[in-house]
Here is the input.
Amino acid sequence: MKTPIATATTILALSVLSVAQPAHSQETPDNVLHQGNAIPWGEPSDGVRYVALYGEMTTEGRSFVFRLEVQPGFELRPHTHPVTEHLTVLSGRFYVGLGETMDKEAATAYGPGSYLAIAAGVPAYMWAEEETVIQVHGVGPMTTEFVTPPVER
Here is the structure.
């Protein structure tokens, strides 16, 4: 005779097995399946490579995911976004500070595996001193407004 716990465990296992499907059988436009070594990076621009992995960051209510590979010397002055920005450091070291003035002494270095959520409207600044890959995700629209607009070159 099975105990209630054994029965519950069996039911849970069967329900998980009946829902789980091989990834290849779930072919829909919203599924994105990339092998790590086959990520379709764009060409570098000013020492930054970008790849959109999912969704559209400019669309209201649409989830998005993208990655940035930045080179030593990358710097993003104080800026805000109208939505919460979620960042995960995948490799390297990413420096992040909060505030309207770039104060490198007040910033924190984040290494691989670090996760940050910077709330909508909160000014933040970022930089890297080594090659660093970060993944950014959120729900659109994601735009960037600099505290002090960039000087035209």
User: Anything to note?
Assistant: The chain has one domain: 27-146.
